[in-house]
Design a protein that fits this description.
Shape: globular
Largest sheet: 4 strands, antiparallel
Number of helices: 2
Radius of gyration: 12 Å
Number of strands: 4
């Protein structure tokens, strides 16, 4: 089981947040499906996922998506995903 804390931030403040829980084992190949489920729950557009995003999450347990990572203006400053260590 793993958990990912997702935060939508504007001007340094959290405007939306959720904790995504999955009973299975974490897999980097499934990261896009986790991201899509999180964005659907937060009711925001899904950003473009690059290798650098996955490497950041793997190395630092966090990844930040900024407006240029979205195909349209998301209406917020950043989307931050953090690994919740159990």
């Amino acid at each position: 089981m793993f958990k990912i804390w997702a935060k939508v931030m504007t001007d340094g403040k959290i405007v939306k947040q959720t904790v995504y829980e999955n009973p299975g084992k974490f897999s980097y190949s499934g990261f896009f499906s986790y991201l899509a489920a999180i964005c659907e729950e937060l009711d925001i557009a899904t950003p473009i996922l690059l290798k650098s995003h996955i490497f950041s999450y793997a190395k630092f347990n966090t990844v930040r998506f900024i407006p240029r990572d979205f195909t349209e203006d998301p209406g917020f400053d950043k989307l931050v995903l953090e690994n919740v260590v159990l």
